[in-house]
Design a protein that fits this description.
This protein is α+β, with helices and mostly antiparallel strands and about 350 residues long. It is built from nine helices and 16 strands.
């Protein structure tokens, strides 16, 4: 069992595991500290400076990188903290695209939440110069078939960079250029489609703002827990449903197989479900024409057809989209029931 540390946040006594950061401990105890570049799946970065807090007797620190200590007193809402946090947020917003109503992340944007929490003074913004990103003049990269990169909305939190490096292990993007020209870019600043990006979408689901968004995105009304159908790994997913249409997929973080991570097929390859030509009932050919049938009729027909074959007259090809248990059953059926070893398996995903 992990060693516990007791300390106070805004006068409230809290406990956390030794080695946890102040920000992590606060969030786990239901105490909100504004943050942009922090993500629980990634190593602390400390780039946005929004999560600053004050430790009595020590001064201002970055809570996402400061470990908890026994007996310390943390202030998240002191005058000095609020002043520094406001400056950091105003500088980010001054260089940020401001038409929130046209953004997919509207009402689900971390920067929007932070701005509402702090209370942004519009008069102060009149002093800031309208920078290039704020006017929306940077080109939008829609070369990827699954998601859009809009650097006008990027806050340079680095979450996409660290996700691609620490979780996916690809390193398709990184910080490029300097000063006001700093941006997230691929090698030689080429479109994302021409980079080594594998289109897994892990950066998209972690982006705190609207800089990375799926194409043709729709908010689901409900979600259905299921297993990804693309291979035998068994990744857990939630299908987002709107009416009778599947509109989104997200990984199940509690699934022990994938822990929320998905590949490009698992995350974006769901549109076949909604295809108008997709078969939803079995078809049986009668008088040269395919007609709809029940599953019982279809299975009885298949069983009757199978009885006409013996031994090496019969062969099976199983699928990588089945589970290991299902593939075990099909090989057992082939050998024990049909009496042949003519079975193969397509392991290609």
């Amino acid at each position: 069992m992990a060693e516990k540390v007791t300390f106070t946040i805004d006068g409230l006594k809290v406990q956390a595991n030794k080695g946890d950061t102040i920000l992590k401990a606060a969030l786990q105890n239901g105490i909100y500290i504004p943050h942009l570049c922090y993500h629980p799946d990634l190593k602390p970065f400390g780039g946005c400076r929004v999560c600053v807090v004050e430790i009595k007797g020590r001064g201002i620190i970055i809570s996402c990188k400061a470990p908890v200590e026994e007996g310390i007193e943390v202030l998240t809402d002191s005058p000095e903290v609020n002043k520094l946090r406001r400056i950091a947020v105003e500088l980010i917003i001054a260089d940020h695209y401001r038409d929130c109503l046209q953004c997919v992340k509207n009402t689900n944007c971390k920067l929007q939440k932070i701005a509402a929490y702090i209370g942004i003074d519009q008069k102060r913004f009149q002093r800031f110069k309208q920078l290039k990103k704020a006017t929306g003049s940077l080109p939008i990269d829609d070369s990827n078939p699954f998601f859009i990169r809009d650097l006008n909305k990027c806050v340079l939190c680095g979450i996409c960079v660290r996700t691609c490096e620490e979780i996916v292990g690809v390193g398709a993007v990184d910080f490029a250029f300097r000063g006001y020209s700093t941006k997230i870019a691929t090698l030689k600043d080429k479109p994302i489609k021409e980079s080594i990006c594998v289109s897994c979408g892990e950066c998209v689901v972690r982006c705190p703002v609207g800089a990375l968004i799926p194409k043709n995105f729709e908010y689901p009304v409900r979600e259905v827990k299921t297993i990804c159908p693309y291979c035998g790994v068994g990744c857990g997913i939630y299908l987002g449903v709107r009416g009778n249409k599947v509109v989104s997929v997200r990984g199940d973080v509690n699934n022990p197989v994938n822990k929320g991570l998905l590949c490009v097929k698992g995350r974006f390859g769901y549109e076949f479900i909604n295809h108008p030509e997709r078969l939803t009932t079995p078809l049986i050919k009668r008088n040269g024409v395919f007609v709809e049938a029940t599953w019982e009729e279809a299975l009885d027909l298949v069983a009757a057809k199978f009885s006409n074959y013996k031994g090496d007259q019969f062969a099976v090809i199983s699928s990588a989209k089945c589970t290991n248990e299902e593939n075990y059953l099909i090989q057992k059926f082939t050998r024990a029931v049909m009496g042949t070893n003519n079975i193969d398996h397509c392991a290609r995903l």
